[in-house]
Design brief:
Quinone Oxidoreductase, Chain A, domain 1, Rossmann fold, 2 domains, seven-stranded mixed beta sheet, six-stranded parallel beta sheet, 15 strands, globular
């Protein structure tokens, strides 16, 4: 097979630059950033869409403390902070390969693909002990170009998926969701409670439960119930009315406790989630399991340890996932088993408005917001456009 013709690449590009921890004023839109050069084993990708994740805001605001909850910091799992400034954020990148580094087949030029967002510490496929990601420890996709390992930029032909829709299937949400389920060893037929069900990880969890044969129960706002049921939720619990939550669960499940909880909320909700798993231990056939990958309700939960050890509740902290899980997700995307939940798109130059929209989003919000470079807007963003108001 002959190599594809070279694609013209400019010397500079537009990008949104994070200059430090803080508010939206720390995000600067610039049009004079040098285009990265692909190193050996890398591909240069012309970005067409990048999904926005809550971790973008949390990293910007320094909301990842592990000791002092008032500390402003980000991931330091490997012992030192990897978020340095200036930084280009954006983890879930979709685009087209326009150049390759040494050792990469030239035939890859022209491929449309999706990035596995992880910065893996080593080559292991079954474990990821020091998770980091593009947009945090290395520059991400809120730009016109990005250079990434060729082995982590996965070709996704699927013509039925627009680039913005493919970005909405990005690894940051879906791999986190899958790792929550695999950590808790969720099996077919088990009842799974998904909190924060209308967000990116929540909607991914609902779909993945159905693929695995598990039965997802969603916790969300009442006006999102029908959309979540269409997505695959067995029942949707109203998070604004938690006064009799155990009774509500019991009625929905026919008296059986929840087998495993996927907790993205934390705070005072955690005790109620545990209640939903232990109200009748005689009907259980496995240990109660709590997977935690978020704290939108609060970063601190007060739990009696006797409730944990006497009821043998197993707790799993989840951050990102593994190469094996990324490979499985790519296979499911290619086979059409995963469905994008795209809410809408903003131009890259309007990232401030997109961040404000995300924080103050309306009750009917469901799914992902995608950021599209201004130069790609007409082709890849306009038909999904959102208004900041």
């Amino acid at each position: 097979m002959s190599a594809r013709a070279p694609i013209p690449i400019p010397q500079s590009m537009s990008a949104m630059i994070l200059t430090g921890h803080g508010g939206l004023d720390q995000l600067e839109y610039r049009q004079d950033i040098p285009v990265p050069q692909p190193k050996p084993g890398e591909v240069l990708v012309k970005v067409t869409a990048t999904a926005k994740n809550n971790t973008d805001r949390k990293a910007r605001e320094g909301l990842y403390p592990t000791r002092d909850k008032a500390e402003m910091t980000s991931f330091q799992i490997a012992g030192a902070p990897t978020l340095t400034f200036p930084r280009i954020q954006g983890a879930d990148v979709v685009g087209t390969v326009v150049a390759v580094g040494d050792g990469v087949e030239p035939e890859r030029i022209g491929e449309r693909g999706l990035l596995d967002f992880n910065l893996y510490a080593d080559g292991r496929r079954d474990i990821n002990l020091t998770p980091d990601y593009y947009g945090h420890g290395a520059d991400g996709g809120f730009a016109e170009y990005i250079a990434v390992p060729s082995t982590q930029f996965h070709h996704i032909a699927n013509p039925e998926l627009a680039d913005a829709e493919l970005a909405a299937l990005g690894m940051c949400s879906y791999q986190t969701a899958l790792h929550m389920l695999t950590a808790a060893q969720v099996k077919a037929g088990e009842r799974v409670l998904v909190s924060g069900a209308s967000g990116g990880v929540g909607t991914a969890l609902i779909q993945l439960c159905r693929i695995l044969g598990a039965i997802p129960y969603a916790l969300s706002q009442r006006d999102k119930a029908e959309a979540l049921r269409v997505l695959g939720a067995e029942a949707v619990f109203d998070r604004s009315d938690m006064s009799h939550f155990t009774d509500t669960v019991r009625e929905a499940t026919g008296g059986a406790p929840i087998d495993a909880v996927m907790d993205l909320v934390g705070g005072e909700m955690t005790n109620r989630f545990i209640d939903s798993m232990i109200f009748d231990m005689t009907r259980r056939t496995t240990y109660p399991r709590l997977s935690i990958a978020g704290a939108s309700g609060d970063n601190v939960s007060e739990i009696m340890w006797t409730r944990i050890y006497l009821y043998q509740v197993q707790i799993f902290g989840v951050s990102h996932g593994t190469r094996e899980e990324a490979g499985q997700l790519i296979a499911w995307i290619r086979s059409g088993q995963l469905r994008p939940v795209l809410y809408g798109a903003f131009k890259l130059s309007e990232l401030h408005a997109a961040e404000a929209f995300f924080v103050h989003r309306s009750n009917n919000f469901l799914g992902k917001i995608v950021i599209v470079p201004d130069s790609e807007w007409a082709q890849h963003g306009a038909r999904f456009a959102l208004r900041a108001d």
